[in-house]
Amino acid sequence: MSVIRCFFQFQNTISATVMDAYVPNEEEKKDHELFASNVRDLMAKELKIPTTEHSYADLFFQEYLIKAKRLVEHDFVFKDVKRILDLNLEDVKNLCDRFFEIGTAKNNFVSIDEFNALSVGVAEVGDKYHNYRERLFAFFCNGCGDAGRLEFKDFFEAVIMVSDMGDVENRINFAFTLFDTEMADQVDTGAGSAFAGVFEGRSDYFNKFGKDGKLDLASFNSAFSGDEGASLLKVVTDSLSEKLGITLEKICATRIPEEVKVKPQAASTSTEDVKIEMR
Predict the structure, then answer these.
(1) Do 196 and 174 belong to one domain?
(2) What is the pTM of this model?
(3) Which domain holds residue 47?
(4) Which of 50, 82, 145, 213 gets the highest tally of CB atoms within 10 A of its CB?
(5) What is the pLDDT of residues 252-265, one digit of tens each?
(6) 69 and 27 in one domain?
(7) Environment class of residue 150 by beta-carbon count within 10 Å: exposed (0-12), middle (13-18) or buried (19+)?
(8) What does residue 229 show for φ and ψ, rounded to 5 degrees?
């Protein structure tokens, strides 16, 4: 429609602002991205408009969501996703696919019942532990347990949390919430507890931090800090990764390199004349 309109519009007017030539400094000469960013900021300031870090990858991801009728909310830009997590567009699509395998495609979120079906909690299923499961669910969706909605961005953050790139403090807080089955702001490490079942044979280690077979949040943090604590914490996060059904490490390990291209040489049908070029 816009192309047709151009044929019937015989005159177009514009208003242009001619700015002084921008001369890069020594630092900008060495860093073309810094140079481009500073020029963009100067132009935006003159036009009195904001800037954004969105790229074509963000546009393609939004196009993928619309075509798949997956109207999920997200608050990231691919430039940051690539820089921090080394994930590309296809990687994030795989995460989105897994999210919709768990959740209700019609509603574009994971409900508390669907979350419970993953068996993330360590307490027995039953009315006694209803509030425990709600609190565990709320941990992942930033306190939205009452609304009963775990969004894609919450799922993305959960997958990041249990990866090697996740924040250690968040992983420890998750583990504490997971094992505080009685919601008493302490974890029972005694015989027969869910905690003892997971860390069987390590009671002597945890007794050094707790008191009377209990760990409050401060002592729990101490127990899972350091090299030995980190290896024990990994037992918890690996279990969660398995139940979520996807990890960042697994995505990166199975990724097909985008740089692989097949280039035929001359006009030949011989496989010996086909060269695989990786850049």
Answers:
(1) yes
(2) 0.72
(3) 20-51
(4) 145
(5) 777 665 554 444 44
(6) no
(7) buried
(8) -65, -40
